[in-house]
Design brief:
The chain has helices at about 1-25, 35-60, 65-85. The protein is built from 3 helices and no strands. The chain is mainly α.
């Protein structure tokens, strides 16, 4: 019986040790960018480019030159922001 009691005691110690390891193990945060954030960045870039381009074209009477340029710049800025977020 003494041998069995030692084995049971060793198993209980191992179980307690494993419980402590799993409880104390920190939860890893998933880094990355969500689809909602990507969509928001793209829409914001498009809107910003559209609005700025529209007003510049109205001021200089050059429709649709600056509208197109600013839309592409807004998209480029959005893509750059998304790239920066994914690098974190």
């Amino acid at each position: 019986m003494n041998d069995i009691e030692k084995k049971v005691e060793e198993l209980e110690k191992r179980i307690d040790k494993l419980k402590l390891e799993t409880i104390e193990k920190p939860i890893e945060k998933k880094s990355g960018i969500t689809g909602e954030k990507v969509l928001a960045e793209m829409i914001a870039g498009l809107l910003f480019g559209f609005i700025c381009g529209w007003y510049i074209d109205e001021y200089f009477d050059t429709k649709p030159l600056f509208l197109l340029i600013m839309i592409f710049l807004g998209l480029a800025g959005s893509i750059y922001n998304i790239y920066k977020e994914t690098e974190k």
